[in-house]
Amino acid sequence: MQNFDTKQFTQQFESMFFGPARAYATLSVDFAEKLANAQLEAGKAYTDTGLAQARALLDVKDAEGLRSYMEGQQKVAKDLTERLKGDAEKVVSLQQDFVQQSQKLTEDSVKQATETATKAAQ
Q: Which residue ranges does the record assign to the Phasin domain (predicted)?
C-alpha cells in the first residue's frame, strides 16, 4: 500500500488553489482601495467646488457682482469638465491595470498548475 504524503498534497493544493486565490484576492482588494480613493478624491473636489460656488453666490451684492459671478461660472464649468475627463481616465487606467495584472496572474497560475500536475503524474 502506498503512503499518502500529506505535506506534498498540501503543497500541491496551496500552489494550485490557495496561492492563486490569495493572490487574486489581494489584487482585488488593492484595486478596490485604489478605486475608492479615486472616488473619494473626486467627491471631495466636486464638493469643494460646489461649496466655493455657493459661497461666491452668497457674496453677490449687486448687478456687477452677479455679472462677475456668472462669468466665473464658465471657468468653473470648464474646470469641472476637465476634472471629470481626468477622473474618467484615471478609472479606466485603474481598470486596465487590474485586467492586465489579472491576466498575468491567471497565466502564471495555469503555468504553475501545469507544472505541479506534471510533477505529480511522474
A: 17-109
